[in-house]
Every structure is written in C-alpha cells, then in structure tokens.
Automatic annotation (TrEMBL):
Record protein name field: VOC family protein
Domain VOC residue range list: 3-122
Family matches, as Gene3D superfamilies: 2,3-Dihydroxybiphenyl 1,2-Dioxygenase, domain 1 (3.10.180.10)
Length: 123
C-alpha cells in the first residue's frame, strides 16, 4: 500500500531555486540529476524541484512544512529573508502573516519560483 508522499515543485530556473533553498532555508539537495534536485529532510520525508517553463503558474499551496516550533521557525525564516503572505478571504484571515484556525497556526510564503509554501503547526 501507499506509505509515503512528497511534493514535486516546478522551477523555471533550477540554479536560482537551489540558491533560494540553500540561502533561505539552509537546505542542500541530497541528490542532483539533470534538471532535478532531490531534498531529504531529517524526518525521512523530502521534496523534489524540477526545471520547467510551467513554474509559478499555480495559485495554491504546493507544499507544507510541519513544525513544532512555529513562532521560532517563522522568526528564523524571516531573519533569512522569507516574506510571509497576508490574506483576507472568507474563512481565512492572517495577522502579521499568521492564520489561526482553531489550535492550528499556518503561514504562507513564495519561493524564488513563485511556488506557494506553507509553514504549519497543529495545536
């Protein structure tokens, strides 16, 4: 049966994406193949970034990072140049980049390729 899933993100400029994830999140690829970067996190999960002209066209969350230290990680990310988005939609309003839904906190940012990435902590 299905045992694991990971995100696959598009990049119009793979080198720029690699620099973003290195400089902003201190991630380096575990593997590099032609046109593809593979990242592995300490939890055993991971994600891929591949080069395509379709990058930046999705207007939805494409990947979430889960954390148990939301405020600390958000501050660290801001210190590394990440800008969090603000939203005011029916059912979702952020304050200083943070949405609180029950006991869950979430915040969204875009990577260098325009992909929407979420940071979230369940309460």
């Amino acid at each position: 049966m299905l045992t694991e899933a990971h995100a696959v993100l598009p990049a119009s400029d793979l080198k720029r994406a690699q620099e973003f994830y290195h400089n902003s999140l201190e991630f380096d690829p575990a593997e590099e193949e032609e046109g593809n970067l593979i990242y592995r996190l300490s939890s055993g999960t991971g994600f891929e970034i591949y080069e395509t002209s379709n990058a930046g066209t999705a207007q939805n969350t494409q990947m979430c990072f889960l954390t148990d230290s939301f405020e600390t990680d958000m501050a660290w990310m801001r210190d590394h140049g990440i800008t969090f988005e603000d939203y005011d939609f029916p059912g979702l309003k952020t304050e200083n980049g943070v949405a609180t839904i029950g006991d869950t906190h979430a915040a969204w940012f875009r990577d260098s390729e325009g992909n929407y990435i979420c940071l979230t902590e369940a309460g």
